[in-house]
Design goal:
The protein has about 100 residues and is mainly alpha-helical. The protein has one domain. Helices cover about 55% and strands about 5% of the residues. The protein is built from 4 helices and 2 strands. A two-stranded antiparallel sheet has the order 1-2.
Length: about 100
């Protein structure tokens, strides 16, 4: 997805994003929300981002999804089912954003 100047202005006014260094999942989610809007899929992406942050900061005692321990296979299945359901409902979004 190519960022138009209008989208860049909306993002600049509402979010702190470095357009030339979008290595963070949170920045990509913000761009998705600015272009598509907040929806169930973006809420799920934020939950996944929080889990990713907990993993990267070794907070493994806090790995929960929908109040269930992520070490359980059933919880992982629920997370993946929710992710794929949202991808089907909202179309598979491309979070890769190209800039000029």
């Amino acid at each position: 997805m190519l960022l138009t100047e209008d989208v860049k202005q909306v993002l600049k006014n509402n979010y702190k994003i470095d357009f030339y260094n979008r290595g963070y999942l949170g920045d990509k989610i913000k761009i998705y929300e600015a272009t598509v809007g907040k929806n169930e899929f973006s809420k799920l992406l934020w939950k996944i981002n929080m889990i990713r942050n907990d993993l990267s900061h070794t907070r493994i005692d806090k790995l929960f999804y929908k109040k269930q321990d992520l070490s359980l296979r059933e919880t992982k299945e629920v997370l993946l089912t929710d992710l794929f359901t949202q991808m089907i409902n909202h179309g598979e979004p491309s979070l890769k954003v190209n800039s000029k």
